[in-house]
Design a protein that fits this description.
heterodimer; A: 288 residues; 74% helix; globular; B: Rossmann fold; six-stranded mixed β-sheet
Chain lengths: 288, 236
């Protein structure tokens, strides 16, 4: 039982990290209807930026805030100079552009930082906690608390503020939102800022938790998060979060605990195929 | 003069939708643009709102050339549109749809007071205030689209084919609301319609559009008596 609970806690942590990366992708798809594969490259940049800023200053706060700012800027550059000029073309064109950016950033990281795995020797300021004889390590606790805080802030922005209302309106009908005085392009830019800053947080958390930062760390999340936004329902942030948490737990419990002989990374795609056959609009997606 | 459109040309690729249309609307007027399907009525309205770009011509609102402004900038200077087929935000509640209509105006207008007034004009919206937009019937969505445009206290309301898809009783109700808004509140309205009888009945003046050009214009009563209008649009 103890092993099961420990694996469950690991699964929730894994799912939390998936959620942090996936929700940026879901937000961007919601307002632009673009599969922003390059989001995973922004996550990689976030990890490297956090590592270098932490190395230079020794401050995790500077690492987080600086990395979030850098990733937000990268996200806006991708939106302005890649996606915006390509919006008039069919959706596969910006998708190809996005894949090109992902590969370019990975190679740039390899050239600049080297092809090695760098360590991220930081300790997040959270204690080890014991609940009913089960240890929740400081790393796990940090992932839970930071993910919960990010989700809470995002929930507040999207459901309780005028900006959030504008984001939801623009994601449903950008043209009509424009006739209400909502600047849809500005909303798209803000969405990229939020999504990219969240990816930076995920990059740093993964870097610290696994003590690894490397050029291709975004490759697996790039395709796995695509499957997750389909499972959750394209453009649905709550759906993406639920799908992410479910996948994190399924990977840990089915593969790690129950030893089902499947490759771990295949589960996201099995889930995607299953959801597409059962409910093509995804868990919380809308067919409208 | 509140709105003046001069020598408007709109094309979609090689297809010329509107060529050289010009008209005006005085403050407090309700003007109809009538015409058959494909005559270019919706294109004109969308170009005034900034949704489609014009190839040539100018749109002047309160003496200011606004052709270069984006749609959201035109909305902010007092132009609002009730789009064809209502196009409410399907996954926002009725109340949130109204709030979206008041975006950026919460310091300028009393949104709650305005919402209560809109609920008194369209009581069904109050009953449905927490329902999602897509769960409303066609008529209710049309009322919501009008209310969403009105919440911002616009100076000019553009109304696109408001009668489309509505049952006759609802058409009468919606036109009565537009007439009251114009007569009692002095709201300037530009109405684009295929329902010639209903639209001319509440209008001050009208323009008849045929294949992208303005064929006939005049007072609403004169137009209703015009032999060509009678023959083509009224069937007698």
């Amino acid at each position: 039982m103890q092993l099961f609970l420990e694996q469950l806690l690991n699964g929730i942590a894994m799912g939390s990290i998936y959620a942090l990366v996936t929700l940026g992708l879901a937000l961007v798809y919601g307002v632009m209807r673009i599969l922003h594969v390059a989001h995973a490259a922004v996550y990689t940049i976030g990890a490297y930026a956090g590592l270098y800023l932490f190395g230079a200053t020794g401050s995790l706060a500077v690492a987080f805030l600086g990395s979030m700012a850098i990733c937000a800027a990268v996200g806006v550059i991708i939106e302005r100079f890649l996606y915006f000029p390509l919006l008039k073309y069919p959706p596969f064109v910006p998708l190809i552009g996005s894949i090109a950016v992902l590969l370019s950033i990975e190679e740039a990281a390899r050239l600049v930082a080297g092809p090695y795995i760098l360590t991220f020797p930081a300790k997040l300021p959270f204690p080890d906690v014991y609940v009913g004889g089960i240890q929740i390590s400081s790393g796990l606790l940090a992932i839970y608390v930071i993910t919960a805080a990010v989700l809470l802030v995002l929930w507040y922005i999207t459901t309780r503020t005028e900006l959030g209302l504008a984001m939801r309106a623009a994601s449903q009908d950008a043209v009509i939102a424009g006739t209400m005085g909502i600047n849809s392009h500005a909303i798209i830019t803000i969405t990229f800022v939020i999504g990219s800053a969240t990816a930076a947080i995920a990059g740093i958390l993964v870097g610290i938790y696994y003590n690894q930062v490397y050029p291709t760390m975004g490759t697996v999340p790039a395709y796995k998060t695509l499957a997750l936004i389909v499972v959750g329902g394209l453009g649905s942030v709550p759906g993406a979060v639920i799908a992410s948490l479910a996948l994190g737990m399924a990977e840990t419990l089915l593969i790690g605990y129950a030893n089902i002989p499947l490759p771990r990374d295949a589960l996201a795609f099995i889930a995607m195929i299953g959801v597409l056959m059962w409910r093509s609009e995804g868990l919380l997606g809308s067919s409208r | 003069m509140l709105l003046e459109v001069r020598d408007l040309h709109i094309s979609y690729g090689d297809i010329q939708a509107v060529c050289g249309v010009g008209f005006h609307l005085e403050e407090g007027e309700l003007v109809s643009i009538i015409g058959a399907n494909g005559a270019g009525k919706t294109s004109i309205l969308q170009s005034i709102m900034g949704i489609v770009s014009t190839k040539k011509g100018s749109v002047i609102f309160k003496g200011r050339e606004i052709s270069g402004l984006a749609s959201h900038e035109r909305a902010r200077i007092g132009i609002r549109m009730v789009p064809e087929r209502s196009r409410v935000f399907p996954r926002l509640t009725v109340y949130e749809n109204l709030l979206a209509g008041a975006y950026g105006l919460r310091k300028k207008i009393d949104v709650e007071k305005r919402t209560e007034w809109l609920y008194s004009v369209f009581p069904v919206l109050k009953e449905r205030s927490s329902q999602l937009g897509h769960t409303l019937s066609g008529g209710e969505q049309q009322q919501l689209a009008i209310a969403r445009a009105l919440i911002s206290e616009p100076e000019l309301l553009l109304v696109d084919e408001v009668s489309m898809g509505l049952m006759p009783k609802l058409v009468d109700e919606v036109f009565e609301v537009l007439r009251q808004l114009n007569k009692e509140q002095g709201l300037s309205i530009l109405l684009v319609e295929q329902n010639v009888v209903a639209s001319l009945a509440i209008s001050t003046r009208g323009y008849v559009l045929e294949t992208g050009t303005c064929a006939i214009q005049g007072d609403a009563a004169e137009l209703a008596d015009n032999p060509r209008v009678k023959e083509v649009y009224l069937g007698h």
